[in-house]
Specification:
The protein is mainly α. It contains 1 helix and 2 strands, in the order βαβ. It has one helix at residues 28-44, and strands spanning 8-9, 48-49. Helix 1 (28-44) links the parallel strand 1 and strand 2 (48-49). The N and C termini lie far apart (39 Å).
Length: 61
C-alpha cells in the first residue's frame, strides 16, 4: 500500500466478536496482542494504523 502512495490503513478491526470474520475473536487479551502485532507490522511497512471499532457488533451475555 505504501508503494501506491497510501500511508494510513483502517486496520486492525478490534471488535470482540465470534461472528465477524474480521475480528480477532472474543478474547480481549488475544485481540490486544494481535492488534499490537498488526499495528507494528503496518508501521514497519511505512503505514499508520487507524483502529476500527464497529459499534454495531456486540457480545451476547
Amino acid at each position: 500500500m505504501a508503494t501506491m502512495g497510501f500511508n494510513v490503513d483502517s486496520e486492525p478491526v478490534l471488535d470482540l466478536s465470534d461472528t465477524d470474520t474480521r475480528s480477532f475473536g472474543t478474547d480481549h487479551q488475544k485481540a490486544t496482542e494481535f492488534g499490537e502485532a498488526a499495528v507494528s507490522e503496518l508501521n514497519t511497512n511505512g503505514l499508520t494504523a487507524a483502529y476500527v471499532l464497529l459499534v454495531c457488533h456486540t457480545l451476547d451475555s
